[in-house]
Write a structure and sequence with these properties.
Elements (H helix, E strand, L loop, with lengths): L1 E7 H10 L2 H6 L2 H8 L4 H19 L4 H4 L3 E5 L5 E5 L2 E2 L3 E8 L2 E8 L7 E2 L17 H9 L3 E2 L9 E2 L14
Antiparallel strand pairs: 1-6, 2-3, 4-7, 5-6, 8-9
Amino acid sequence: MIGIDAVDIERLRYLLRRSRAVEFRLFTPEERRYCNSRVDPVMHFAGTLAVKEAVIKAARLGPLVAWSRRIEVEREPSGIPRARIHGIDHGPIDISISHDGSMAVAIAVHRSGEGARKETAVTDDHDHDASKPNVRPNQQLARYIGLGHRSHRPHEPDRTVLPEASSSVVGTDFP
């Protein structure tokens, strides 16, 4: 399976500036160390986030809130990125990251025929509730990182409204 995602760097910069907790909720300590060691950390955070979403799509895992810290983007000494999913035997996942202008994009190719996805005993306090089909993953992410407010209309599903930003993210990261 193939997954692809793009993240608007300036949109992520806005979110990280608004709430430093976003960095800790979405990225592992090693990812934070790597990205913060770069000249423009947010550009690297955006690429890492795009990889996580691409891996989720390629491996058909579910929403980012349940997998954000279980998917880790590691770098070899040569700088080549590798994706690892903690808690499952996922088989090989090839990834590629690119940055151009205000966008970071990533592609992941999960060669599932070469390894079976097997769940192991890993728990996450923010697992996705599949019984709520009206809640989109980007709305769950907004709730998870503590942004926006919820509408309280009894005749409609609960929807999180994010603050306006200069541009939007392509894909399902944010509305």
